[in-house]
């Protein structure tokens, strides 16, 4: 695997796609970010990140079934790939190593 780095939003989107487990689509990801992180992101920003992550091979997508609630329009559903899972596993290990390396801070007022 080539050295792939993720920006903060990319990292969050990959993790949320993994959390949604085959049911991830752009508006669902936005809603999940709002609920879990109290963070609002535009539809355009999410769609750009999803395309970029798919191009990097970290996500894959396909169209779901047409639904009446969407006027017959199909959702593009995203899933994490094996490479995407490997990247977020590496990222978690790196973050944990950094946290463990920090000395316990004491604040004196």
UniProtKB/TrEMBL annotation:
> Per its UniProt entry, which superkingdom is the organism in?
Bacteria
Q: Signal peptide location in the record?
A: none
Concerning SUPFAM superfamilies, the annotation shows: Winged helix' DNA-binding domain
* UniProt protein name: PadR family transcriptional regulator
Q: Where is the Transcription regulator PadR N-terminal domain?
A: 19-88
Say which species the protein is native to. Answer: Nonlabens spongiae
Question: Record's PANTHER family?
Answer: PADR-FAMILY TRANSCRIPTIONAL REGULATOR, TRANSCRIPTIONAL REGULATOR RV3488
Under InterPro entries, the record lists: Metal_resp_DNA-bind_regulator, Tscrpt_reg_PadR_N, WH-like_DNA-bd_sf, WH_DNA-bd_sf
């Amino acid at each position: 695997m080539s050295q792939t780095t993720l920006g903060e939003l990319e990292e969050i989107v990959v993790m949320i796609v993994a959390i949604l487990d085959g049911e991830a689509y752009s508006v669902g990801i936005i809603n999940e970010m709002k609920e879990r992180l109290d963070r609002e992101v535009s539809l355009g920003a999410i769609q750009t990140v999803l395309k970029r992550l798919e191009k990097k091979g970290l996500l894959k997508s396909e169209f779901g079934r047409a639904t009446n609630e969407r006027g017959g329009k199909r959702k593009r559903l995203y899933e994490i790939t094996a490479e995407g899972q490997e990247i977020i596993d590496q990222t978690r290990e790196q973050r944990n190593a950094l946290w463990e390396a920090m000395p316990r801070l004491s604040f004196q007022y």
